[in-house]
Amino acid sequence: GSSWNNCDFETNSCKVLPEFNLQPGWIRRNGQSGMGPPYSDHNGNESAYFLSLSSEMQSSSAALRTSVFLPTDEEHLCQIRFHYWVSQMSRTLMVGLRKLSEDTVANIWQISGELRNQWNVNTITINSTKKFEIIFSGMVETQRQGESIAIDDITFSEGC
């Protein structure tokens, strides 16, 4: 609903992902950019924007960090819903949870390449007694043309 904070990447700003344009490896683009698939956003719109991993990535993984969220409680669970595209087996998209009191990132969801080139949607429910941030990581084993990872329409419920 309208109470969810939404990052659809149509503009250069998003409250919850404050620096997504500075995150190395991730590019804000649309399907007409000439950079390979996906050729549209998850609604099938060729001119609408999403984030995708650059094919010129220097390292094997690229992280996308959210701002810091307050602890959740029973009444206000934090739900994160996002659309994702992962093509080919050498690609992995992971979602991690980092509590601010700890250095480690707990992996809470991941998907490896499916050969179906299509947008999928996922919702993750976060339960954390400490302040936390969420990290989306794209990983690439081998660079091949026409393969990609993309993320679109990340929405955060009011419990976040």
Automatic annotation (TrEMBL):
It comes from the Eukaryota. This is MALR1 protein. InterPro entries: ConA-like_dom_sf (IPR013320), MAM_dom (IPR000998), MAM_domain-containing (IPR051560). Residues 5-160 form the MAM domain. GO terms for cellular component: membrane. Coiled coil: none annotated. It comes from Nesospiza acunhae. It holds the Pfam family MAM.
